[in-house]
Amino acid sequence: MSELIQYRLEDGVAFVGLCRAPVNALSQRLRAAILSACERAAADAEVKAIILHGADGLFCAGADIAEFGTDAAFAEPSLPDTLMRISEIDKPVIAAIGKLALGGGLELALACGYRVGEPGTRVGLPEINLGLLPGAGGTQRLPRLIGAESALNLILSGEQIDAERARLLGILDRLASEAKHLLDEAETYARELIAMSAPALPPEHCPRPAEDLPDGFFASFRERQESLWKNRLAPRLVLAAVEAACLLPLREGLARELSLFKQAEASSQSQALRHVFFAEREAGRIPNIAPDLPLRSIRKVAVIGAGTMGGGIAMNFVNAGIPVMLLEQQGAALDRGLTMIRKNYEISVKRGKLSADQVEARMELLHGTLDYAELADADLVIEAVFEKMEIKQQVFRTLDRVCKPGAILATNTSSLDVDAIAMSVSRPQDVIGLHFFSPANVMRLLEVVRGKATAPDVLATTMAIAKRIGKLAVVSGVCFGFIGNRMLEPYSREAQRLLLEGATPAQVDKVLTELGLNMGIFSMQDLAGVDVLYLIRQANQAATAHDESYCRIGDELTVLKRHGQKSGRGFYRYEGRERQEDPEVVALAERLSQELNISRRAVCDEEIHDRCLFMLINEGIQLLDEGIALRASDIDLVWINGYGFPAHLGGPMHYAEQLGLERVLASIQRYRSELGAYGEMWFQPAPLLKRLVAAGKTRIERF
Questions:
Q1: For 415-426, how does the pLDDT look when each residue is reduced to its tens digit (9 = 90+)?
Q2: 107 is catalytic
Q3: Catalytic pick from 10, 76, 127, 575?
Q4: Is 226 known to be catalytic?
Q5: Catalytic option among 10, 67, 76, 107
Q6: What CATH number labels 301-476?
Q7: Domain spans, the chain
Q8: What b/e string do you get for 92-126 counting C-beta neighbours within 10 Å, with b at 16 or more?
Q9: What is the CATH code for 5-265?
Q10: Which of 155, 186, 220, 601 could make a disulfide contact with 96, Cβ separation 3.0–4.6 Å?
Q11: 484-694 architecture in CATH?
């Protein structure tokens, strides 16, 4: 028997244990080993029932994603063929699901006649997150088990559900009393089935999956979801596959599912989402830092500033069970901050995401103070005060005096020079940037900014603590704005310049949202605060002073106190959160254009797309060349998770590769020529972009 399978026979029950560490991913070799073991058990007259299980506890986390898009994905035995054969065995096959059955792992369990879980079991079909649909029976067997609507919602959400919910839905037949008893109780179940001469496959719970659905269900479902799905392919293919389960016999439905799966697998959207999947795993690998480097202990955290950002940062740590000391200068501000944190938790209680007891347990981990001396025993201190260099340096000088040796001192600055902050203390090796995105308790991204003096163990420790609090950490070097906000500058610049040349905020935003971005640039600026972005520009004024038109509309709006959503007016007018176009902004653009001698004209959508996105991409390539970003895929993660760039496009760097680097370069050179002095000033192709195109490279990488 293969080393990928543990096989044993006990008094008529064959145990087939999957043992491909760490998660029993269903590679071609494991599929072949499973099939061989099941065929052995099927052919053995002594075997009366078969139990499939994870030899090391975990059942199966799904297909081997590295095989997607390669010949190995459907190399014999393919997963659909393997599961079909298992479903045809004329003996009861029981899946004993320890910990996880996800994607192909759940499809493997569904091909078995019976399923037993443990209290901590989670199951789901998350293929939608990779731009795919279940391709080995999930869209056909699950509706026949739990009904079409429940199956459709589970597949489209990609969520993992717990054992009790899986049992109530009918995915699990039984739950073991404890994880350690799973195999024993699965064996008891197998012997019960043998004793009652149970069929290999019990009758389908929902042989007509759409029986209880109203007429026209699928058409109306599709219509309701169109605005949410936008231009995403996978949800539409999922819907078609589940509809096939309601219309076709199982074998024909499986053939239809497989055809739809292959369509999804070959799509650029799935390729992009698989790129993102592997990018997330690569982001934690930092060159020249050994994976076994000893880390600093983080048992207590302090946060300076109890405003919206500081409070959100504090919530991340108490959510993970880490005590937090929250410091403010004035008692009223501290009380407001603590009250706001409690209100945030109470909202979670109302939504059923937390219990009242959980809220109290978290609030007990949170302590307020007005005295820096109480931070003396903190292992990690995060400053989240006003975005002014002098204020931050003063805070760090105070921390230098009161914090214990070895404490990590972090700044939450979104754009300022972390090295300049580090030079204000006697221990710059302990200083690092931790740029949380707002709202900090919700947004997944964390830019980890490594200063010139930052010690390797400080960087490694912060990467580990980021994972512990559920953040996706991406390393950046020090420059103005780091990765995300530095790339935001040319993106914002071109958008605002296009208003002066004749576009409207709604036209620019429409081009971007139709591409798939969560928000257009002007909607995003109104949400973030037009005044906040003005202050960030002011901090970098020396780099832009040579252009009188640079973000001039944003500056004027700030003077007019049109600060965005919070003031009811920005690039748009707001009634509550309802956004409306504002003729006053167009009039302002017309006036400024005249003052600056900028000719106005009709601006086409293609120009908006190319100028906004290609200058953003160009800046990203320059960041990579400078070594600010470690890899192009890190840049993609920042923009997907921090700025709403569509994941199904893979992020701006991957999107550029899909469009073709030569197209990006040609467009930049075109506008450099066509836009006169402005083009000469700003449309300068990154040297790395020119080198990549000259060398015929199709991937963005430093060389």
A1: 999 999 999 999
A2: yes
A3: 127
A4: no
A5: 107
A6: 3.40.50.720
A7: 5-265, 301-476, 484-694
A8: bbbbbbbbbbbbbbbbbbbbbbbbbbbeebbbbbb
A9: 3.90.226.10
A10: 186
A11: Orthogonal Bundle (1.10)
